[in-house]
Amino acid sequence: MAWITKNSATMTIERRQQPCLTEEMKADMSKRLLPRYETKMGALLPVLHEVQEHVGYLPHQALEEIAAFLELPPSAVLDTASFYEEFHFSPVGKYVIGVCQSIACEACGHQPIVDHLRSKLGVEPHETTSDGLFTLLCMECLGSCDTAPCALVNEDRHDLINIEQMDQMIDEIRAREGGQG
Amino acid sequence: MPMTGPVLTRRIPTFPYGDPKKRRTYWYDDYVKSGGYESLRRALEQEPAHIVDMVKDSSLRGRGGAGFPCGLKWTFLPKDYEGQRYLAVNADESEPGTFKDRLILDYDPHMLLEGIAISCYACKLQTAYIYIRGEYHHQAHILEKAIAEAYDKGIFGGKGLLSGASSFKVDCYLHRGAGAYICGEETGLLESLEGKRGWPRIKPPFPAVKGLFGKPTIINNVETLCCVPFIVEHGVSWFKSLGCESTIKGPPSFGTKLMGVSGHVNRPGVYECDLGIPLSKLVEEYCGGMRNGKKFKSAIAGGISMGVLATDQYDAEMDFDIGRKYEVLGLGTACPTIFDEDTDMVMVARNITRFFKNESCGQCTPCREGSGWMYKLMCRIEAGEAKMKDLDLLLELAGSMGAMPGTTICGLADGNNWAVRTIVNKFRGEFEARVKPSFVPVTVGVG
Ligand SMILES: Cc1cc2nc3c(=O)[nH]c(=O)nc-3n(C[C@H](O)[C@H](O)[C@H](O)COP(=O)(O)O)c2cc1C
Ligand code: SF4
Ligand code: FES
């Protein structure tokens, strides 16, 4: 639910030596993004996107650094970031499989696919496999209802998905990633 | 006169005018070769006010859901204000069942940019932001590239529109959302553009007076803006020859419309049709009929907020009269989801209430609490654990959301209300079959 935020009083903040927002990134963003908006806060969404892409998720340290960069209170950055589903505050799997659960996809049979993925990956929606490879999500309409049921795997949309196709994709990823590690 | 050839899908092969397999993205050179940016050239030869008049006279109505007259909206801008004004292009397209704007973004991005350039010139808007939903990764890349091309070729940027053909300068930026349906609501979108949570604003003040960063702002849907170059190029009477007049003395529905059909049909997809096409014709002639030879049962009129059509409303005309004629909220995005005879309407209602529960932004109590309760009730009904009186409670809750003006800030609550109410009212038998009779206490006098 978009309006529930975490209890920040009970959160421990992990920090690391190197910054999440490097000087290089700041210089680039100052030149490219900030001039597009009347206020520095206007650039918050694009900055959050780019930092998340760089780090993989948005640790608290990143939120603090973004706040300093845009001259905002950290609470304002958290307030905005926590509102949006796409921003993650803890690491997610290397492959995020988001199956659409909205009406056209449910009417065209998304549920058996989700159930299969739950048992194959051994996780519930919004959980990540212990090897850190996969996060399963149930998402709302992906704007591809003509190819229902569909799913978003990281940035790529998969149309007219079925159990065999998802199995094959997961097996391939496992073989590939397992081979490397 | 009905449409004789594709308009918005001129470069996007679409049945019956072309083969969808041959679709490809038109980049700048191809776009110009096929007549692109000619409308902009023509527009710049005219006074901005004349273009606003043309759009007003054409009766072009917003394609983003509300159907508000586009030209009229443009005239709400303050007249003698020379300062910064904005255009916010609504490419958030998150209403379940809707995927029509994506077709334009995927294959003809410069058509949108041309519409933006002309609209900015007409309304003297110096900066345009295209707010695209976060999940449209691929489409965002396409737009980035198209915008870069447009700057490169002098459409936007420091020299003035069309490499200085007009001294008026326009900047155009892409702004990605991050997964929040409510940011499609126009003032939620503005808040999100300002870097805040997408909480819709109380109106008035209206955005045309006080919008983005407090400046006058026009918000239009992608498809609406794409109609503008065609009106400039072919004229008002041509535009009014497409589509239809109202049959109930309402405002007319002129022009063509992208209709994205999903669900239980043979060929789901986006089709460009005259407004006013009967849903049955859209399904039977464009979509190849119902899937597996099944019968039509119901359809979501145009995005789930609009509610559903009953089985005997299969011939409903897809135009802006549809709300008043067929007891739905309205035409919405004109993207119907079709259900066949085997569809469980209780499932449909449960799915829709889950969506609204997830997407309510939480500002207004009736919407935040009501959407959660309705979802829980729907889960109970679906599981066969509810009682007859729960059905009335469901309708009462729905009725408390958005129906009373002023109790909620934006249209999301009303959409939730219409969706639930129309499904329960039009398919009440299915719901009654799933609930247990309410327990009626009977006292028997003993002794
Ligand atoms: C909850 C809600 C969600 C909306 N989502 C969208 C959307 O995704 N895209 C869109 O164009 N309009 C959306 N709208 C409609 C906009 O508020 C607005 O009316 C529209 O962008 C105006 O453009 P138009 O007049 O060109 O249609 C939404 C409205 C509401 C109440
Ligand atoms: S009606 Fe619902 S979605 Fe709209 S502002 Fe109120 S709480 Fe938010
Ligand atoms: S309902 Fe699944 S993509 Fe639209």
Small ligands present: flavin mononucleotide, iron/sulfur cluster, FE2/S2 (inorganic) cluster
How many individual domains of chain A? 2
The arrangement of helices and strands of chain A along the chain is: HHHHEHHEEEH
Helix count, DSSP H or I runs of 4 or more residues of chain B: 18
CATH C-level name of the largest domain in chain A = Alpha Beta
How confident is the prediction overall: mean pLDDT of chain B?
Answer: 95
Inertia-based shape of chain A: elongated
Strand content of chain A: 5-15%
Tell me the number of strands of chain B: 13
Largest interface summary: A-B, 44 and 62 residues
Query: Which word captures the global form of chain B?
Result: globular
CATH superfamily of the largest domain in chain A: Glutaredoxin
The proportion of residues forming helix of chain A, as a percent range, comes to: 40-55%
For the largest sheet of chain A, list the strands in their spatial order. 2-1-3-4
Poorly predicted regions of chain B are none
CATH architecture of the largest domain in chain A: 3-Layer(aba) Sandwich
Strand tally of chain A, please? 4
The helix content of chain B, as a percent range, equals 40-55%
